[in-house]
Amino acid sequence: MNVYAVKHKDERIRATSRSGGIFTAISDLFLDGGVVYGCVLDENYNAIHVRTENKTGRDLMRGSKYIQSRLGDCYKQIKNDLEDGRHVLFSGTSCQVAGFRCFLKKDYNNLLCIDIVCHGVPSPKVWKTYLDWISKGKTIINVDFRNKKDFGWRDHVETIFCKNKKINSQVWTYLFYSHNILRPVCYECPYKSIDHPGDITIADYWGIEKACPRLDDNKGVSLVLVNTEKGSLYFEKAKNDIVWYKTRIEDSMQHPLIEPEKVPDERNQFWKDFENKDFSYIARKYGNYTPLWRRTLRKAKHLIKKVLGKD
Amino acid sequence: MEPNNKIQNTNPIPILYERKEDCCGCTACYAICPRQAISMEDDLEGFAYPHIDAEKCIRCQMCMKVCPIKEAKRSVTARQR
Ligand SMILES: Cc1cc2nc3c(=O)[nH]c(=O)nc-3n(C[C@H](O)[C@H](O)[C@H](O)COP(=O)(O)OP(=O)(O)OC[C@H]3O[C@@H](n4cnc5c(N)ncnc54)[C@H](O)[C@@H]3O)c2cc1C
Ligand code: SF4
Ligand code: SF4
Ligand code: SF4
């Protein structure tokens, strides 16, 4: 296995990718007659896996969608493409790639698999409830799970774009990182090591400040594990479009490469609350949410103290 | 389908997962099933799990053989031995 720190040369691409844009550099190699499968948001903001042959379709796959995506009939569809001799890139979570390989039972020369490092996938049902709550009935026109442009790569802020309004929030981030809303299997995930089912494994390069400080500009760097010979072949071809450095795995060991997350003690309580309480309660208790009136009150108190010279 | 068909095959209807922790929802079993006997259905938490229609199932066990989580857990047990 070879380990790399990677950023795309095109800054516009990096700005719209979750980390350093390695997915774009690799998938570009398939847009000339090949096929790319990956995760997009559908018109109702559900994460689904789709097939595309063109750049427009591929660009929609950029950006992490922090919910479990639905594969639908992708496995069968990809197999058909493979049997037709098309060059296919499949990208998904480690278990989606592992499942696909089991389904195929054999290796195809014309298939490349990329798996993304993930520490768990949140519930699509909680996501829909959250969206309804945060948008307050306004029409949503776009969602960015991690607004890198305004907040940088390290600050995890999600932005919901509504008609005439942009809502920045961290409630989803907090719910996600509380680990209450992950799929149960994720707490026992078999892919939490440096062995991965993809030919290439991609992730956020946490620890870049140590592993390769010259690349660290808070705009996003990808950690890339090249696991197979085939993966290395494609990585070589993608090198034209990227800035890359070889790094050491010891400097790159984020938690999801070591072990799964633990089941939180409060998980059962969370789901009880989710069934019985309204979402404002959930957001306050588990999503670190402070309602506007309380924030205003806090500010007012602060101001009064200042005026009275007690601060 | 003739009722006889079912009697010939003495395999049980597979149990794809006993605990939720044993299924990642990858759809491999759903995709391999030769009879379209499996559907992916949401549980209360909103995650999709495979469900076998006993009427359609011919008990061929193909779905059990493509499951990545079973495979991974098997290889862990094998390594521990
Ligand atoms: C649920 C989830 C949890 C993650 N957790 C971690 C983590 O703990 N540590 C870490 O380092 N990285 C994590 N990531 C992965 C990481 O954020 C990026 O995938 C990686 O940095 C690639 O960056 P890029 O700039 O090349 O990608 P982009 O161009 O932004 O890549 C997008 C790729 O991700 C795939 N994708 C997006 N959403 C999903 C989804 N819901 N299901 C399956 N595939 C999807 C697309 O198909 C595409 O291949 C997670 C991603 C997801 C979706
Ligand atoms: S944590 Fe493991 S089981 Fe959960 S989605 Fe990611 S790869 Fe699949
Ligand atoms: S045993 Fe065979 S027919 Fe029955 S669900 Fe599994 S794959 Fe389908
Ligand atoms: S193959 Fe296994 S993990 Fe995948 S959906 Fe079926 S039972 Fe779940």
TrEMBL record, chain A:
Residues 86-244 form the Coenzyme F420 hydrogenase/dehydrogenase beta subunit C-terminal domain. It holds the Pfam family FrhB_FdhB_C. This is Coenzyme F420-reducing hydrogenase, beta subunit.
UniProtKB/TrEMBL annotation, chain B:
SUPFAM superfamilies: 4Fe-4S ferredoxins. InterPro entries: 4Fe4S_Fe-S-bd, 4Fe4S_Fe_S_CS, Polyferredoxin-like_ET. The keyword Iron-sulfur applies. Residues 13-43, 48-78 form the 4Fe-4S ferredoxin-type domain. The keyword Metal-binding applies. Keywords: Iron, Iron-sulfur, Metal-binding. This is 4Fe-4S dicluster domain-containing protein.
